[in-house]
Amino acid sequence: MKATTRLIHSVPVDELTGSISVPIYQTATYVQEAPGINKGYDYGRTNNPTRHALEK
Q: What is the C-alpha separation between 18 and 14, in angstroms, rounded?
């Protein structure tokens, strides 16, 4: 397989929805349980699920 084909096949299935393509999360901020306590994402410009999937 070419590099682009391998890249497409390496994208993980979205655990929340079962989607086989990475959803685009366009939100800027995420709910936090308390200041500094979040589920891995707090502000879209610093980190977000779409970018995380691409980096993996």
A: 5
